[in-house]
Amino acid sequence: MPSIAFAMIVVASMTRAQGTDSATRAQTASKMAWWREARFGLFIHWGVYSVPGGVYDGHPIGHAGEWIMNRGKIPVAAYQQYAKQFNPVKYDPDAWVRMARDAGMKYIVITAKHHDGFAMFKTASSGWNIVDATPYGKDVLKPLAAACRKYGVKLGFYYSQAQDWNNAGGAASRKATSEGWANPDSARIDAYTQTHGGHWDPAQTTRSMADYIDQVAVPQVRELLTNYGDVAVLWWDTPTGMTDEYARKIHDLLALQPNIITNDRLERPDYPGDFKTPEQKIPNPGELDGKDWETCMTMNGTWGYKPSDTHWKSSSTLIRNLVDIASKGGNYLLNVGPTPEGEFPQGSIDILKAMGAWMKVNGEAIYGTKASPLGPLPWGRCTQKTEGDHTLLYLSVFDWPADGNLLVPGVKGHVVAARLLAGGTPLNTEPGTDGLLVHLPAAAPDTVASVVRLTVQGAF
Fold this sequence. Notes:
Blueprint: H1 4-38, E1 40-44, E2 55-56, E3 59-60, H2 68-71, H3 76-80, H4 93-102, E4 107-113, H5 130-133, H6 141-151, E5 154-159, H7 186-196, H8 209-226, E6 233-236, H9 244-251, E7 261-262, E8 294-297, H10 315-327, E9 331-336, H11 346-362, E10 380-387, E11 390-397, E12 405-408, E13 415-420, E14 428-432, E15 435-439, E16 450-457
Parallel strand pairs: 1-4, 1-9, 4-5, 5-6, 6-7, 8-9
Antiparallel strand pairs: 2-3, 10-11, 11-16, 12-15, 13-16, 14-15
């Protein structure tokens, strides 16, 4: 039988652990508060790959535009020639940030370095950057950071920490991490990538991945975290060949920005980050595990600029995507792929304007909301907020009822008020057999999604 002293030690240890967990949760909640409030952000994929725009040696290359070097197996020397044509003289970061803000977006994440290894900033660790390798000769991140501060938009950086097709030693494919290795050591990774790592040019393998991490990735992440003011997000991508050792060296740099948040793609499973990143899809409720998450998605079929891809999603689809994501407690990071001249494609501009018009009227149903407390709704989606001892339910109606009666299952409490967000028109409600009936006008104020705000006594 354990002694009383031993039992007291166990209890004290458990208490300390619970206190530590509680403090960690509180710290995470504090860091994530702005992100959970924002719900909507702009992804920007921009780099040298915008010059070929999906075509190499006269032939279209499949997959997204930013993958052209990999999919076309373009030699390093040949690909680097594109930098001589990258001269974005029409780049206007002020206009970019205003477009994002006017669309209702609260943060921007831009590709500081994608898998082609090209840095969109001045870096001392590689000459493969926009200042040293292009006729433009200027860092594009500094003026973007200034514009974000000017307009109150948070700034984040995408950084491909492992997969790099130009800086020697960077990983070139996902093979090493798809072999089922739990935590491979760096020597095993280096041996594997030298022979099976998907490299197609000897110039990619003149140093080890360990040296690449120390000589390129670590110093570049340090530059991003020290040269641009407050950085809200570091958005890692493809933990190809990453080990605990490599990840720790990069992760330790986050101390330079104590309030920064990160996604789940640095290294898995030991560095899960602050939020999960489903790509090009909206998860079903059964897939969600209570963690913060963000769907990233293209407006057409490519992340990087590809002029042949004119298959733009409709603004109606993207608005409803935003509502659907918010109703499940997630964020929406919607992508633009600028041209090599530095402009947003017209298709993206049109979509941003349409989404901004909807958000100007209905943004209250998105910002700072939580997932729906109701079950599946056949006519649309629901988000919620707490206001004192009331619950605010935002009912985004996609399919306007022909008879004017909207049945809201699961609402049994006293309804304090009901109105449309568009114009503030008050609405009558009455209890129904299967829930609450909201009496709507004959015509929907918005054919995409009209929002009813219900103020209900108590909490759900």
